[in-house]
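Structure ticket #2291
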Amino acid sequence: MAKRVPMNRRKFLQTGATAALALSALPHYAADFGDMKKRVGLIGCGWYGKCDLFRLIQVAPVEVVSLCDVDKRMLAEAADMVATRQVSKKKPRTHGDYHDMLKEKDLDLVLIETPDHWHALPMIEACQAGIDVWVQKPISVDIVEGQAMLAAARKHQRVVQVNTQRRSTPHLIEARDTIIKEGKLGQIGHVEICCYWHMRAKGNPPDKNPPDYLDYEMWTGPAPMRPYCEWTHPRSWRAFMEYGNGIVGDMCIHMLDMVRWMMDLGWPKKVSSSGGILVDKASKANITDTQTATFDFGELQVVWNHRTWGEAVDDKYPWSATFYGDKGTLKASVFSYDFIPPGASKPAAHGEPLYEYDKYPEDQTEKDLEKHCASAIRWHMKDFLKAIASRSRPVADIEQGYISTTSCILANLSMRLGRSLNWDPAKGQVIGDEEANRLLRRSYRAPWVHPEPANV
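Resolution: structure written out below.
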């Protein structure tokens, strides 16, 4: 049995199935990306917005010309940081309204890094303006939004990359290519995906006036207007269903999308879910603390579980996917993978994240950077840039993001309705369930108008 050895760069580059992709990740800008002096804008200058933007700056000679955020302090800080990171040392323009940014008509690509309820409208308007788009996951908070986003990308022939960057994670590419695609698991009959991190906000912070540096009216946008509290902004907005789709929309989408990519799966035929707020009933958060969802692909069921309390089933893989085959088991996460043959006491193959500190030493000191994800974001950015250069579809094309996002929203709708939902991808509707179909579109707060696929 092979000795358990962490994957390093040399081992990765020697992996036959992934060597070509690894070599293409090296910074030969002209060969890979064409004329890459692209003008870039960022909408949403918080934690992950800056994280993604700085990875882009690392891999291509782009010029960040414009930033947008409704938080004046966050916006000013981001502008100063960008000036120190980009080659030109120029400070980008700043905007409090993304409409003003798009009116400048000087962007080649834009990153949309807002809370979930603000993904659809700026993405669609960027496509209409002829701009290629990088958009955070989940792509939308309701299903019709996602349909309109896909329609806009296709109508205006835009390249849209969704930040489901597990598809570009080096050690997961290796696991897919050398374990799953080589048939080492045999027949995969079941997949479990999960998140057992205690990431649901706890407590009951009082409502208060929003800070004067935050345009809370614009921050809320088309979402229902909630009283402001310290959780609302920044980052803890995920505690509220008004702005997203709970832990299923935040964490399940990553693992489900990873499984779909690794196994070449399309749409689930049926989605069912149950759960609720079963333990932490005192918290102001209104997302579930416990939920199970089954994504039925016919001959394969992918089953999700999350709990924001108690212990993880496997403390090494608390947010992960486990593929069960008749010839072995594969456990995979952002931190590692392990292939375990039947009856083995130790893994026969093991991989870990690719750290690139020799090329990008700033990764070691960047505030709040998830260091294990840095190479994945860079590889995802490179895939995006190559798709722009060739006018092709990237690895996490908007259609793939729509499938994974819609599947997770259907899970929440199933839990809400108390029944399984059968999906018709051609019609974009739940089969034989008008009540469910009425919930595919949520109401927008005036004056914002809900996008429709036929009107983009």
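Closing remark: The longest helix spans residues 398-417.
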